TrEMBL record:
<dbReference type="GO" id="GO:0019265">
    <property type="term" value="P:glycine biosynthetic process, by transamination of glyoxylate"/>
</dbReference>
<dbReference type="GO" id="GO:0004760">
    <property type="term" value="F:L-serine-pyruvate transaminase activity"/>
</dbReference>
<dbReference type="InterPro" id="IPR015424">
    <property type="entry name" value="PyrdxlP-dep_Trfase"/>
</dbReference>
<keyword id="KW-0808">Transferase</keyword>
<dbReference type="InterPro" id="IPR015421">
    <property type="entry name" value="PyrdxlP-dep_Trfase_major"/>
</dbReference>
<dbReference type="InterPro" id="IPR024169">
    <property type="entry name" value="SP_NH2Trfase/AEP_transaminase"/>
</dbReference>
<dbReference type="InterPro" id="IPR000192">
    <property type="entry name" value="Aminotrans_V_dom"/>
</dbReference>
<keyword id="KW-0663">Pyridoxal phosphate</keyword>
<keyword id="KW-0032">Aminotransferase</keyword>
<feature type="domain" description="Aminotransferase class V">
    <location>
        <begin position="31"/>
        <end position="330"/>
    </location>
</feature>
<dbReference type="Pfam" id="PF00266">
    <property type="entry name" value="Aminotran_5"/>
</dbReference>
<dbReference type="GO" id="GO:0008453">
    <property type="term" value="F:alanine-glyoxylate transaminase activity"/>
</dbReference>
<protein>
    <submittedName>
        <fullName>Aminotransferase class V</fullName>
    </submittedName>
</protein>
<dbReference type="InterPro" id="IPR015422">
    <property type="entry name" value="PyrdxlP-dep_Trfase_small"/>
</dbReference>
<comment type="similarity">
    <text>Belongs to the class-V pyridoxal-phosphate-dependent aminotransferase family.</text>
</comment>
Length: 380
């Protein structure tokens, strides 16, 4: 079988993985119940906690980001519990679906897709429903290229009994997240986005307020029972089931790279690349989809110009230029495209992608002008 592995991944995950990280996956497999693996896991969890910016507990899960979302809900929600799901995109909706799977009494706080969640509405809903047990939100709504005000909402939730669950799958390690400062009780993330490791591992942080709830909640999942993870961790620094040893190597190295770059520097780099991408696309006459006040720094969403189809545009970029960008999801399919600029992305990826977007559009009959010229000024 022949695969083309030379594509430029400008999708919002999985992202390009540095060779240093990939190379760790060629290391021999070690036993997962050995002191060596224990030391590796402890060091990786320690690094993960630094990136989460938490002094509380964290666990690594062999599985994708959704496994961590599922773990967060299945360990905190019993049948009939009131759950407030703040939704303004596909991944916020995923939390709502998971909560419904566990038969929660869900309250869907629907916000416009393309805009940020409304803090006042969250406040009102919690005041009207003081018995709310869990509040969920996605920090960086990858499906729309929107960033939600999780710090402000954290301040609101803090004054209530409810616990605050935040998905930072496409922001942690790229955009500013301080789990403890933002009053996040459970934070979930994935390996394959801003952390720039391969897909296959997720992480979850849990503070004392969350443990109080977890300890009173019936266990509903066997594989994702967080109490089993905690018990094994406390007794022997192990995971309850066989972890992906190779992914632990990769996460360790990827997190080391994140911390060596420095969180502040990394956030600034993502800001800069987001600004360059937005400016470049706008200079081509392309309208950005997310409202200005709500734009993500890790993924940019844009509306297709009149007459340009999703199939032709992304097909041309992929087949002719080996560049992958993402399309829209749910009702935004065919209407928007999304450029991921997260993780290990560099200046030449940003400018190269913008140049090839221009070339692709020109090929399809839309004269986009020169967005690269404008974008490059943001990279100086
Ligand atoms: C914000 C967000 N949450 C959750 C997920 C789901 O993660 P996974 O596909 O790793 O299960 C994604 C994936 O794109 C995401 O972007």
């Amino acid at each position: 079988m022949k695969l083309n592995t030379e594509k430029l991944l400008m999708i919002p995950g999985p992202t390009m993985v540095p060779n240093e990280v990939l190379n760790t996956m060629a290391l021999p497999i070690i036993g997962h119940r050995t002191a060596d693996y224990g030391a590796l896991l402890e060091d990786t969890v320690d690094k993960m906690k630094k990136v989460f910016q938490t002094k509380y507990d964290a666990h690594l899960i062999t599985g994708s980001g959704t496994a961590a979302m599922d773990m967060a809900i299945s360990n905190t929600v019993d049948k009939g519990d009131k759950v407030l799901n703040i939704v303004n995109g596909n991944f916020g909706d995923r939390f709502y679906k998971i909560a419904n799977t566990y038969k929660a009494n869900t309250m869907l706080l629907d916000n416009e897709w393309g805009d940020m969640a409304d803090v006042e509405k969250v406040k009102e809903t919690l005041e009207e429903n003081p018995d709310t047990k869990v509040v969920t939100i996605v920090h960086n709504e990858t499906s729309t290229g929107v960033k939600n005000p999780i710090e402000e909402i954290g301040k609101v939730v803090k004054d209530h009994d409810a616990i605050y669950i935040v998905d930072t799958v496409s922001s942690l390690g790229g955009d500013y997240v301080d789990v403890d400062k933002f009053n996040i009780d459970i934070c979930v993330t994935g390996s394959q986005k801003c952390i720039a490791a391969p897909p296959g591992m997720a992480a979850i942080s849990v503070n004392d307020k969350a443990w109080e709830v977890i300890n009173k909640t019936e266990t509903k999942s066997f594989y994702l029972d967080i109490k089993a993870y905690q018990k094994k961790w406390e007794s022997s620094k192990e995971t309850p089931y066989t972890p992906s040893v190779s992914m632990t190597y990769a996460m360790n190295k990827a997190l080391e790279i994140v911390l060596d770059e420095g969180l502040e520097t990394r956030f600034k780099r993502h800001d800069k690349f987001a600004e360059a991408t937005r400016a470049g696309l706008e200079a081509m006459g392309i309208e950005l989809f997310a409202k200005e006040r709500a734009r993500s720094v890790t993924v940019t969403s844009a509306l297709y110009p009149e007459g340009i189809s999703d199939k032709d545009f992304r097909g041309t970029l992929n087949n002719d230029y080996d560049v992958l960008v993402a399309g829209g999801q749910a009702h935004l399919k065919g209407k928007i495209f999304r450029v991921g600029h997260m993780g290990s992305v560099k200046e030449h990826h940003i400018l190269g992608t913008l140049a090839l977007i221009e070339a692709g559009l020109k090929k399809l009959g839309y004269d986009a002008g020169c967005g690269v010229d404008v974008a490059k000024d943001y990279l100086l």
